[in-house]
Please model this.
Amino acid sequence: MAIRKKYLKTKDLCKVTFNVPPELGKKFEEACLVGDFNNWDIHATPMKKLKKDKSFTVTMSLLKGKEYEFRYLLDGETWINDKEADKHVPTYYPDAENSVISV
Model:
């Protein structure tokens, strides 16, 4: 997975692009980005599936100077973390972690 950060000079925002790689994209039909930034709403931030390689992508504008917990939800039932997140933290659920991005 890949996360790209682009800091805006004129605003207190960072454009962050989240990606689910082709090897996972080929196995699933839908992906959603779920986290603090959308109140963990599993429908709020669907990701676009790219035809060329079957990866999923979405770009969000996030406030600078904050940390956000997030995960990817694939086909409405499979939760995965981003290996390239800035860190991972435990959740309320046993044996589960959230990915964290710092912007």
Q: What stands out?
A: The chain is about 5% helix and 50% strand.
